[in-house]
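Reading a protein record of the kind used here takes only a little practice. The record below shows the convention in full:
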Amino acid sequence: MSIEGLVARLGLSAHPEGGWYREIYRDAAVSTIHYVLPAGGLAPLHRVRDRAELWHFLGGAPVELHTISDDGDGGRHTVVTLGPDAPVGVVPPGVWQATRAGTGDGAWCGCTVAPAFDFAAWEMPSRPELLRALPATLHAVVRELTRA
């Protein structure tokens, strides 16, 4: 099925990060969404300050899940490729993250947030803001994972 067909079938709407989403469950403790990125699509660096995210690969192209933590030692960038062989990834609370879909048909994921997602706890700073906030050792990654 095409990305457009999947977006229509699941009733998804545009997401502020890019791609499309729809919340499919929510209570006080947890929420979960369907999330679709087009082939090569990027959801730029962002974070949820006080909530953990659990990413689930559901189909299509593999997804790179990038995380950046700045724990005072120059920062650390890690990448997990979500796909059939590694279908789950975790982003701890307050950790910067970005996702990029591989080539092909685009990617279909689920994302579960605990406690339940709240846009008040979400932030997606500009590239210049992140370059000022993060150590110079991470600047190349910041440029790669943000929009100009």
